[in-house]
Specification:
This protein has 134 residues and is of the alpha+beta class. It is built from 5 helices and 5 strands. Helix 4 packs across helix 5.
Length: 134
């Protein structure tokens, strides 16, 4: 079975709820991802901020020079997540229904890493190539 644990990335970047939008976007762009988990002081997942979440605020904020927006104002407060033992195939089915492109990977309430649509596609492509060799 293709498991998420074998294809996820370790968490190297995250956001905090009180972080300003400009600094959050810097972290987001530095991560190379289109979204990041938002963690509380105990490193528990409390939200998720994607580039898509930021665009409307960037439009108005840049026009009006409004720098008061915080991560907590824009983040999804009920982020979808997966577990390391979950199936890549199940996640691929979920992603095909226009769900998020990146999921936090949780174990015991802690974020272990993330898995992106790109990583899911790579895993499925490897599986398909294996079929061709038999």
């Amino acid at each position: 079975m293709l498991q998420i644990r074998d294809h996820m990335s370790r968490l190297t970047h995250s956001l905090t709820p009180r972080l300003g939008l400009a600094e959050a976007l810097d972290k987001l762009h530095h991560s190379g991802l289109s979204g990041l988990p938002v963690l509380d002081e105990q490193k528990r997942l409390i939200g998720f901020l994607s580039e898509q979440d930021c665009i409307p605020s960037l439009l108005t904020g840049s026009y009006h020079c409004d720098t008061r927006t915080r991560v907590e104002d824009l983040m999804s407060h009920t982020p979808l997540s997966v577990a390391p033992d979950d199936s890549i195939l199940d996640l691929a089915r979920q992603m095909s229904e226009a769900k998020p492109k990146i999921y936090p990977v949780l174990q015991g309430g802690k974020v272990l890493g993330i898995i992106s649509r790109h990583q899911v596609m790579q895993a499925l492509n490897q599986q398909m190539k294996g079929c061709q060799q038999t």
